[in-house]
Amino acid sequence: MVKRKTAIRIRKAHRYLGIFLGIQFLMWTISGMYFSWTDIDEIHGDHFRREEPLPRNFSGLMAASNMPDVDSISSLRLLSVAGAPHFWINKSELYNARTGEKRNGITAEEALVIADRFMSPELEVSEINRIESVDDHHEYRGRPLPAYEISYHSDNNLKAYVAVANGEFQTVRHRDWRWFDFLWMTHTMDYQGRDNFNTIVLRAFSLLGLITVFSGFLLWYTSSPSMRKWKKKLLTKKT
Known about the structure:
Blueprint: H1 4-37, H2 40-43, E1 76-81, E2 84-89, E3 93-96, E4 102-103, H3 108-118, E5 125-131, E6 147-152, E7 159-163, E8 169-173, H4 175-188, H5 200-223, H6 225-238
Antiparallel strand pairs: 1-2, 2-3, 3-4, 5-6, 6-7, 7-8
């Protein structure tokens, strides 16, 4: 039989652990329900975008090796920047593939043309801003900077992002994505990058959650009338 003082200690530990972990357990449940009931394509903003544009065909291009200031080429991509062919060389230099002109990034006007190629034609642009840096919690974190942030007239606070360096369309962000991002943060407990499942905080809460569950089982074992009757029967048979 468990002593009364021990049972009281178990009960207190279970109670206080439940209070301490309750909010996080609630967030895990709410976020899990949200993830299971939402369409991930809508979270990605696919309903705000056109179908994936077909690659453009270009002719009359210069040889990439003839571009000025290019000593060697380790990587090469042919990109369409507002309808004009460009070489993206060594992941750092942009050249007009017809004239050989070296570009120091794209213009805001070109970014609007690029965004229009990817975004739904019904959308109306409200403003465009160039962003040079973002913090760890910004919706555009982890992507090439600087970038053009293109805002649209929408109840969803819709924005699209285009990289300045090479004119590549990056991503779409809107209200539902931001909710998803917040709940994903509370689910993983990675309050910086969102996707690290090996944080000390998550490990600690998982371990404490396991202790809470086991303390609940132990509390039931020590206070259940059925278990008391069963233990009495065992003692009676032994005697």
